[in-house]
Amino acid sequence: MNSPNEPVATLPDGVHEPALTDKSGTSGRGHIGLIVFGSIAAGLLLGVVLDFLVFGGSSEPVITGLALLSLAAGCALLARLSARYTDQPQRWARTAAIGFGIAGAALLILRPSTHALGLLGWVWPILLVVLVVWIFRESRRSLHSWSRRVLLYPALVVLMLVAVGGAVETALEATTSNQPASGGRTYVVAGHRLYLRCEGAGSPTVVLFNGLGERTPSWAWVQRDVAPNTRVCAFDRAGEGWSGTGVGGQDAHQLSADVHGLLAAAHIPSPYVVAGHSVGGAYALAYAMDHPSDVAGVALIDSTTPYQFDLSWYPNFYSVAHRASGLLPPLARSGVARLYVHLAGGSLPGDAESQAQAFASSPRELSANRVEFAELPTVLRQAKALKSLDGKPLFVLTAGAGQESGWFAAQDRLATLSTNSAQQTAQRATHVALLDDERYAAVSARVIEAVVAAVRTGSPVSP
Q1: Among the listed residues 103, 118, 111, 100, the one whose alpha carbon sits nearest the alpha carbon of residue 169
Q2: Which pLDDT belongs to residue 29?
Q3: Eight-state DSSP code of residue 150
Q4: pLDDT tens for residues 130-185?
Q5: CB contact at 8 A, 172 and 338
Q6: Are 274 and 288 in contact (CB under 8 A)?
Q7: How far apart are CA 220 and CA 436, in angstroms?
Q8: What's residue 248's pLDDT?
Q9: For residues 40 and 74, is the Cβ–Cβ distance under 8 A?
Q10: What is the dihedral of CA 89, 91, 96, 99, to 10 degrees?
Q11: What are phi and psi of 327, to 5 degrees?
């Protein structure tokens, strides 16, 4: 305290003594640390609610646009509260809110195509890097609190990683060539192009139906093993793999029409043995339903059933997976999917593995998976109309490892579709191993060959 005789220091007019701030973030007025925490938490919570709970499973522009609007809301909240309740107004947050808000609104209004989003990949990472660097500089000047290092800086690091990952992903998408293997080509069917790859020779021709997320390279082991015995053909559905974008919704009947037109365009005569893995099994059954005179036999490899939603666990699984499917294309756009696929690895042969990984990490392919997954309830409902295969050879192969309750009973029900059926369980095989593990893919190939043999000889199908 000054003594009565000590002069009191004064400041010039218009100059105020700065408020004292301690390391807890408490200034002369307000708690800036708590406001930073609450603003970041509010933005994250809003993003989760919008992108997963409310609009889960939506298209990439919608998911990304809502994420940007959530960032904008968090920044706007920080700007408003810090100015009103503290002596450390974060004016940079208002500018950031405007930038994120404009970008998010533009995506929601314009709904750019996957191709357009790919072109934007040459621009948005640069803009995001500039914004992050600017926020870092401005926050060092205006934010004097533990929250800058503990909360804001980690958030900026995440945004910087997204920008760098997006730049790398864009460059890799533009420079990496994912060419189909020799022996395959595309055919024009109903105004769009479908890719087909056949190996071997002989009749009946085996037609392979991909599961969800699978493309023609997924069948590499199986095709190699079946080809010495008969012709075996794999194809990519419209909008997937090496096929062009389709016209209209791809329900079971539309897909069957596409396959029928594709085989006709490629001059591959019936009879066919249709074989499907996972969801591909339901597509194979739908084709047998729509074109019964073309189909001589069916092989189902750990197949989805038309009554999938009757399984106790499946409706909840589908709801969560459908919502999550909308998050995958934006993650792929920032390089996360490519990193995950690379670390997870795979066991397909040679070029097939690199081709499958390229598809699994592509924003286009993950967007196609989202659309297909959304259509799945319709596909399964349509496939229920198939009540019998009229004694045609049917083989049901089931993976023995990692199955949920009710799965084996559902496989038993599939076997009742024909009076000429056989079943087998690959005891140690997982669902995916029946295609991508060489040992268990050989089991899948033998099952297909058993159906081919039954068709040729007119005898009962046998394990």
Answers
A1: 118
A2: 59
A3: I
A4: 999 999 999 999 999 999 999 999 999 999 999 999 999 999 999 988 988 888 99
A5: yes
A6: yes
A7: 8
A8: 66
A9: yes
A10: 140
A11: -80, -20
Task: Note the pLDDT of residue 335.
Answer: 95
Please give the biggest Cα pair distance in the chain.
Answer: 119
**Cα–Cα nearest to 213, from 371, 365, 429, 399:** 365
Q: Please give the C-alpha separations between residue 393 and each of 143, 202, 298, in angstroms, as whole numbers.
A: 73, 18, 6
State which amino acid sits at residue 42: A
- The full set of domain ranges for the chain reads 32-174, 185-457
Say which CATH architecture domain 185-457 belongs to: 3-Layer(aba) Sandwich (3.40)
Q: What is the pTM of this model?
A: 0.90
Question: Strand runs (DSSP E) across 179-318, as ranges?
Answer: 184-189, 192-199, 205-209, 232-236, 272-277, 295-301
Assign 389 to helix, strand or coil: coil
H helical segments located in 326-420: 328-333, 336-344, 350-360, 363-383, 407-415
C-alpha to C-alpha distances, 32 to 145, 440, 450, nearest whole angstrom: 7, 59, 71
The pLDDT value recorded for residue 154 is: 98
- For position 182, what pLDDT does the model report? 83
Which residues of the chain fall below pLDDT 50? Answer: 1-28
Q: Which two tokens stand for residue 355?
A: 């081709």
DSSP for 1-23, written as a single string: ---TTSPPP---TT--PPPP--T
Residue type, 410: A
**pLDDT (tens digit per residue) in 334-343:** 999 999 998 9
Rounded to an integer, what distance in angstroms lies between the CA atom of residue 213 and that of residue 210? 8
Among 270, 191, 271, 277, CA closest to 234: 277
| pLDDT of amino acid 424 | 97
Amino acid 25: pLDDT:
46
Which CA distances in Å does 277 have to 215, 218, 303, 360, 399?
11, 10, 5, 17, 11
Q: How far apart are CA 316 and CA 309, in angstroms?
A: 9
The SS3 of residue 403 is: coil
Backbone phi, then psi, for 44, in 5-degree steps?
-65, -45
CA-CA distance, 90 to 73, in Å (whole number)?
14
